[in-house]
What we know:
By secondary structure, this protein is mainly β. The chain contains no helices and eleven strands. Strands 2, 4, 5, 6, 9, 10 and 11 form a seven-stranded mixed β-sheet that branches. It has a four-stranded antiparallel β-sheet with strand order 1-3-8-7, with no helix packed on it. A hairpin with a 6-residue loop joins strand 4 and strand 5 (46-51). It is globular.
Amino acid sequence: QLQLVESGGGLVQPGGSLRLSCAASGFTLRYYAIGWFRQVPGKEREGLSCISSSGGSTVYADSVKGRFTISRDNAKNTVYLQMNNLKPEDTAVYSCARRYFMRPCSTDHDEYDYWGQGTQVTVSS
């Protein structure tokens, strides 16, 4: 079965850091671009970042540019999101998703076909 499982969320103080992991199973990760998204109750899902299948190209939303870094280790079938200088406004459920096959990378939450369950990130003192 195809599956994406996020981990690494938790409670962190403002200014702190977390690294999220997105572990894939049931498919070969290196053939797909992967995106990271977040959502809070009552708001639209926000696209944060996307990394191309090879890792050679990345895109970021303005809200996280310069603070978050996406990367991947195709040998481990895992994509990461390093989050630095976290702010209370970053509190959300963070999810990863698989881009449609052969589609170019985008932070728009369309043309993604499989989604993880999400991991909670809470930034609070």
